Amino acid sequence: MISLLKGIDVPMGFKLSTVALCAASVVLLSGCGDKAPEKVEVADYVATNRGYVKSPEVTSVAVTAAGELLVTGAALPEARVRLTSPSGQAYGVTAGSDGRFQASLPQMSGGSFYDLAMETEGRLMRAEGRLFVPPASDIGAPPRSVLLRPGASALPLWPQAGLIAVVDYDAGGAMAVSGRTDPGIMVDVEIDGQPALEVRSGENGVYTAALPVRGGLRSGTVTIGIRARDRFETRQVSLRQPSTEGATLMGVAWYVDWAISGGGLQTTVVF
């Protein structure tokens, strides 16, 4: 095992954002190599003739008896919502008067990816990030769905997510972790058994934390530890150098390698 914690300084190029989202804090990951941090092109709120409008979002994912994904989310009232697969196949639904929408989507072998957008005032407003759902068949348990975000830590969408639900890293040496606990409490983060930092969970219990890794990431494994009140959880993460996109099940975790618009690949590990 390698030790990644040489100090608690945030390395050059590792930019921290304080965008107010449902999670406690959001970290922007660096791009691959020496490239600048990925710039997220869609904002959480967009100015329209109606004022500042929140972009559409996925709130939950379930599996139907037919084996499809039932995606529930929020958009503008009666807005036209579009979910698009990587192959370009689009599925459209109309949000209700309360803005709530549901769409039944086919599952893809090896994991499902969908981009979300809605049409408002003649323009297409894209959601932040991309939905990923591992293959799932149990209609009694929500799948481990996450919102993949370019240049930022992914957000766990399933309510049973653990203290360590998702870990993100990239070839530029950036790393972040997110999970779910009680709302509004302090969360202590450890790297290879050493205290690293402390963050607070959001109102929905989700936290995100930028891991202060100095000197970049190298191939091997790193152990992440999270403590919240009387709960403590550890996970080992294998640091890989993928060359192509894809999702692979390794033990109990899905390693999702996906391209970001600034170039290179970002890896999201879903536990």
Can you characterise this structure?
The chain is mostly beta strands and 271 residues long. The chain has no helices and 24 strands. Strands 7, 8, 10, 11, 12, 13 and 14 form a seven-stranded antiparallel sheet that branches. The protein is globular and about 50 Å long. Residues 1-28 and 30-50 have low confidence and may be disordered.
Provide the descriptors you would attach to this structure in a database record.
single chain; 271 residues; mainly beta; 7-stranded antiparallel beta sheet; 6-stranded antiparallel beta sheet
Helix content: under 10%
What is the β-strand count?
A: 24
Estimate the global geometry from the Cα principal axes.
globular
- Low-confidence segments, ≥5 residues, pLDDT <50? 1-28, 30-50
Overall SS class: mainly beta
For the sheet with most strands, the description reads: 7 strands, antiparallel
End-to-end separation: 20 Å
Element layout with pairings:
Layout: E1 16-17, E2 26-27, E3 45-48, E4 51-54, E5 57-63, E6 69-74, E7 80-84, E8 90-94, E9 100-105, E10 112-120, E11 123-126, E12 130-133, E13 146-148, E14 155-156, E15 166-170, E16 175-180, E17 186-191, E18 194-200, E19 206-210, E20 220-228, E21 231-239, E22 246-250, E23 253-259, E24 265-270
Antiparallel strand pairs: 1-2, 3-4, 5-6, 6-9, 7-8, 7-10, 10-11, 10-12, 12-13, 13-14, 15-16, 15-24, 16-19, 17-18, 17-20, 20-21, 22-23, 23-24
